[in-house]
Amino acid sequence: MLRSVPTRSMSLRERRTMDTTPIPRSQSGTPTICWENFPPQIQHHYCSPIETRTDVHAQQVTSSASVAQNDCSAPSSSSNGYVKSRSSISSKKVPPEVPKRTSSISSRSLENRPHRSNGLTKTTENGSLSSVQSSGSDSSISTDRLQCDYSPMWKSKSGNVPEYAEPVLDSSLANITISSKNVSWASDNAEPSTSNGCKLISETIRKRQYRVGLNLFNKKPERGITYLIKQGFLENSAQGVARFLISRKGLSKQMIGEYLGNLQSPFSMAVLERFAMELDLSGMQIDVALRKYQQHYRMPGEAQKIERLMEVFSQRYCQCNVDIVARLRSPDTVFVLAFAIIMLNTDLHTPNIKPEKRMKLEDFIKNLRGIDDCHDIDRDMLTGIYERVKANEFKPGTDHVSQVMKVQATIVGKKPNLALPHRRLVCYCRLYEIPDITKRERPGVHQREVFLFNDLLVITKILSKKKSSVTYTFRTSYPLCGMNVQLFEAPHYPFGIRLSQRVDDKPLITFNARNEHDRVKFAEDLKESILEMDEMENLRIEAELERQKSSRVNRTSKAFYLFLFLASLL
């Protein structure tokens, strides 16, 4: 006769609730869901940019970044929308603030799928499973959301199914199998087999194509606009392009100015006129309106381009301020005054000009005598313009290059120029360099601060920490094009990342992450950036082949006409 398994005695609280089923005692004598059985939390050192973007039709859509907002603590200057890790609240040093992601296509919200591990259930609402969640902001440490997935011991206990089983990119990292061998290399080229994975792949490719279009615009604006129109991201009209330049992020202000000032392109000139029509300049002083006008782009250096930009501005200003223009004797006065304000701003705020040689108020008024159809403008009006321009320099709005410049200012040493129009910061992660995979190192040695840009991987080391800033020493950098990423597990390095050249598999550098979360998130961003650069390289090769083909055709045609000419002489 079989005896039933003995159960532990019920507590007083359980006796009050008779519906509660007694919990069977485990072999060790403690309940299996005792909190002491769970490994401690591991702090993340991964900071990923978040950006909620509009869809392709310029409609604001709430993306999956809203999931991360509950767990991310904003800095004091919340207007910038930067992500700040929760670890920074406990007076710990953090890397420079990471900008929002420039991907402009909002991703679909992930389904709330439960992720089970040893009886614990987690959903994507938890925060740690969101693809836009920064590592330091995952603060779900309550008992109802105990996070035990960052420990290699916990992962080995829960089998070979990875804890982060969310849908990932076409180069999925969720299918990585960690074995118990000494060193196991994981292939990260697996494709999701479900229909949801196919939809996610299609959406991921579209996002990548859009970022490629932004990169092309930030290198050659006309080519980028052509690519975005061809891919269906942009309406093929002057008004559609103008609204795109005004409303979308990820575009270099410098390149917007170059595009709007392209005097050789009739379409660019049409875009410039529609660009000005999209701005409301009503009820503003001319310098205030000009400041708003210039915030959307960086003024080009050529005088002819500046003249054309000021001409379009003056026309729009006259349309919005009929009452102000009515007090002037000539509508051309607005154009002359706007051009003079640009020159004044350059004179007052150029660092190379000595203070004693800068333009004075009397000089500014004297230079504008008789510009209103041989009459002078009101002195008080000119004085107000001079004082406002002197107090506040005309500057374009911030873009992704502004954030890259902030990061570059914190890095010392012989580093490459990071602040380029096409370069943007993707993420930051703290990793540990592995000199020899077979030798064990002390914990925390060879610490590296890794900055991932969309085309470059920069490796740095902390030089000094101050109360409000951190300074980094430049170590090395690697271009992403042609790079290969492999994840591995070794006895001393359970969260290994190996970077090598794709052509000859020559190793570049080997890292170990602090936990699985940092490794997976960093590898995902790195692989997606590599695919983005591979697409850019393919487009460059196609353009070069097309150019060579066109050049051969031109040479052939010239030779043919030369042959006909010589034949006619005979």
TrEMBL record:
One of its GO terms (cellular component) is cytoplasm. InterPro entries: IQSEC_PH, PH-like_dom_sf, Sec7_C_sf, Sec7_dom, Sec7_dom_sf. Residues 1-10, 19-31, 58-82, 118-127 have a biased composition (Polar residues). It holds the Pfam family IQ_SEC7_PH. GO terms for biological process: actin cytoskeleton organization; regulation of ARF protein signal transduction. Residues 84-93, 128-142 have a biased composition (Low complexity). Residues 1-32, 58-143 are annotated as: Disordered. Belongs to the BRAG family. One of its GO terms (molecular function) is guanyl-nucleotide exchange factor activity. This is SEC7 domain-containing protein. CDD domains: PH_IQSEC, Sec7. Its main location: cytoplasm. It is found in: Cytoplasm. Residues 199-392 form the SEC7 domain. SUPFAM superfamilies: PH domain-like, Sec7 domain. Transmembrane segments: none annotated. It comes from Oryctes borbonicus.
